[in-house]
Amino acid sequence: MINVENLNLEIIRQWIQKHKPIELLQEAIQCDSVNPPGNVMDFVKIIQRTLYYYGIETEIYRSNLEKANIVAKVKGKHKGKRLIFSGHLDTVPIGEKTWDHSPFSGHIENGKIYGRGSSDMKSGLVAFIYAMIFLKSTQALSTGELVFIATFDEETGSLGAQQMIKEEQINEFDAMIIGEPTDNEIVTSHKGALWVKVDSFGKTAHGSMPESGVNAINGMKSFIDDISGISLFKDNIDQDILTKSTMAVTMIEGGSNYNVIPDYCTSTIDFRTTPDKKNSDILNALHTYISNTSKKEDTPHISIKPIVNLAPLNTLDNTEIVKVTKDTFFEIYNINKITKRMNYFTDGSVFSSISRNIIILGPGEPSQAHQPNEYVNIKKFNQSIELYISIAKNYLKSS
Ligand SMILES: [Zn+2]
């Protein structure tokens, strides 16, 4: 048994060397959890088996035969704060480009391990698991509770996280670390996402007599042109990414034949929102535009429906989890860290409805997420285990 009083980086490093977490990461990468279809059950079994081996029980919340959330807990001897380690089980598809090694190989070369999900974010998940195992087997937590959660369908709009909250699979917590790829930087803020389906309804006619119909594609074109001109959606000249909301038309479809005036057109628009240009502001602006324009008889009727509606994350630098994480970097590596911001959204958008004390910190490289030949640097992976152990110990100590 490791003497907790003398717990230091050297002891943690020796423990990591002995327990070889890279082997579990390799197995995790070899397990296909590409979304769609997002079948994560094989991966769930691997996690359950590993935690069980070290005496940690898992709660599995199935959504259907292919999808489930996982919750596992390690409790300190005394009551105290609750810290959550959070990640997602699914990955994006492998893409069209051929990979140098199979995306499910877990190939190791020059200090890197390759495969889909290596950076985003199986490395973060496996690092959390080993940090938890360390803290359980050394009984290093005297107070509080450490909870590990892993969700399905994050890549398609954080559906697993939403179900987790709706069904109260987790309850209140004091702070959360999300292991998405940040290259082990501390990220406290990211954009929100608002994906909207737009339908344009017109009236069909023969292509030789367009004036007898109402062209749904023309209606869609005007809608997109007009809302692109609304100042709310224009790029801000400020280069701080969190003040720059964006809008992109991502899908469009309409018409039935070369010589028919289309009576229907549909599109999707991907808005990325910021704390001062909220999702609700954008939806209100869209509704106002529609009610002002679609009263005329000869214009198509436009309707909108949000498909994904996730708030931005904006954790303040003076929250305890941020302070403890910075202090831990200094304590174990002698590094003064500053916090950073990112573009992509995470499950943090959903969980921020419970607590605002959320940071993103993971070993993956943000530039590798969703790319062919995705890899994670093994040194960063091991470093994230050191960090997760030390942050959890320091944060829960002050319960
Ligand atoms: Zn991710």
From TrEMBL:
Record flagged with keyword Acyltransferase: no
Cofactor(s) it depends on: Co(2+); Zn(2+)
EC number: 3.5.1.18
Enzyme class, broadest EC rank: hydrolase
InterPro entries given in the database record: ArgE/DapE, ArgE/DapE_CS, Bact_exopeptidase_dim_dom, Peptidase_M20, Peptidase_M20_dimer, Peptidase_M20A
Keyword Metal-binding attributed: yes
Residue span(s) of domain Peptidase M20 dimerisation: 188-296
Annotated TM spans: none
Any Pfam family matching the protein: Peptidase_M20
Pathway involvement of the protein, from the record: Amino-acid biosynthesis; L-lysine biosynthesis via DAP pathway; LL-2,6-diaminopimelate from (S)-tetrahydrodipicolinate (succinylase route): step 3/3
Catalytic activity: N-succinyl-(2S,6S)-2,6-diaminopimelate + H2O = (2S,6S)-2,6-diaminopimelate + succinate
Entry keyword set: Amino-acid biosynthesis, Cobalt, Diaminopimelate biosynthesis, Hydrolase, Lysine biosynthesis, Metal-binding, Zinc
Family affiliation: Belongs to the peptidase M20A family.
PANTHER family xref list: ACETYLORNITHINE DEACETYLASE (PTHR43808), PEPTIDASE M20 DIMERISATION DOMAIN-CONTAINING PROTEIN (PTHR43808:SF8)
Protein name: Probable succinyl-diaminopimelate desuccinylase
The organism of origin for this protein: Virgibacillus byunsanensis
